[in-house]
Design goal:
By secondary structure, the protein is an alpha+beta fold. Helices cover 26% and strands 26% of the residues. The radius of gyration is 26 Å and the shape is elongated.
């Protein structure tokens, strides 16, 4: 037999371990709570990323198809759509009944395969609105040509454009450069 004392099994935490755990949880709360409280900003940031992605898609699709792609921003601020435009329909005003909506090949848009972003029907962006659209030539459309640049008429480069997204307390502005279509995104102070 052995002369060793029996091993005692302890259950629970010592006071020191419990205090360390409380300090770690307190530090985590101090770091995480402000981030979680500012969740409203995530919807508008997601909408801005979606718009940048849609602008990039419109440019790439215009190049790939050697046609025109137009982003139209709805007058009521609820979102935008991507439509196919030809030389014959270039100057036509937007009409949802006759518009040739671009098709989302991955069918990632909610409600179908048309390239439509509608904040009213998409709970990811429920608090977001397109608060302002400024296009150098006027209107609410940005058209990309066969080279992916912005145009105001077939063969005629467009001026600058700006789109502002708002959720009531935050605003993000997307500036689209003339001719090249380069996008710059910034939070509006």
């Amino acid at each position: 037999m052995s002369d060793r004392p029996p091993i005692l099994h302890r259950s629970g935490y010592t006071l020191l371990e419990a205090m360390i755990l409380m300090v770690v949880l307190g530090v985590a709360a101090v770091l995480l709570v402000p981030r979680l409280a500012d969740r409203g900003d995530t919807e508008i940031q997601a909408a801005a990323r979606q718009l940048v992605a849609d602008i990039s898609w419109a440019q790439c699709d215009a190049v790939a198809s050697q046609g025109y792609r137009r982003l139209h921003f709805y007058n009521d601020g609820r979102g935008w759509c991507l439509i196919n435009v030809t030389d014959a329909t270039f100057s036509n005003a937007f009409d949802p009944a006759t518009a040739d909506f671009a098709t989302d090949p991955w069918r990632t848009r909610r409600g179908g395969g048309d390239f439509v972003v509608d904040f009213d029907s998409d709970d990811r962006f429920s608090s977001v609105a397109v608060s302002d659209v400024t296009v150098a030539e006027g209107g609410r459309d940005i058209t990309f040509d066969r080279l992916g640049g912005t145009v105001s008429a077939p063969g005629l480069g467009a001026g600058a454009a700006s789109v502002t997204l708002s959720d009531g307390s935050n605003e993000w502005q997307l500036d689209i450069a003339p001719v090249t279509g380069r996008v710059v995104v910034a939070r509006v102070p």
